[in-house]
Amino acid sequence: MFFGTKVKDQNIPMVMGRICPNWQYIHNATAQERGRVIMCWHPRHYMFNMIHMTDQIIHGEAIQISTNTKFLITFIYGRNQEEDRGPLWMDIRTLSISLEDPWCILGDFNAVLHQGDRIGGVDVMDSETRDFAECIQACNLQEFQYEGAFLTWTNKIIWSKIDRAFDNELWYEAFSFTHVQLLTQGLSDHTPLSLSFPPSLNLNPG
Fold it and tell me: Which of 42, 119, 154, 158 has CA 20 to 30 A from 201's CA?
């Protein structure tokens, strides 16, 4: 999965053919806006059916082929401006209604959740975290425990935690060995987030 790619719509097939040959992918690029999220998967390991897509979300149903385990997964790339993220929080709330499958949601929310999530710049205000926090609480989501860096984005003046991964209460029933890492920062101004969930030994595929 790639966020904030800035790749033009017509160039995505060429780029993905070079980076992830033989993988399948979807994206939310348009003729008016370059790629924000490109979501890709290897067809030998997963199947994916897109359910809902906006400029800030790609959401769908996936199946881990080795165990025939179905789960829901949502990829986020939030807008930079607080007022533009309102539709994002509404979409997440809507998606959470009546879920009966394991669900994880991850990505660049472009929003801080707690007062200690930024170093440098202006102090985090309660109003800045409220919409995000209320959304997570209303959807009964919990943040994955993780290894690695705490702060996930920097412009070398400000450091903040805006990249996160959450799960619902059904997730660990299916994937009890889930491992989340925030990896070493490379060329991007974001710290890569890795979420892996090999088949659980105690899994009862349905």
Answer: 42
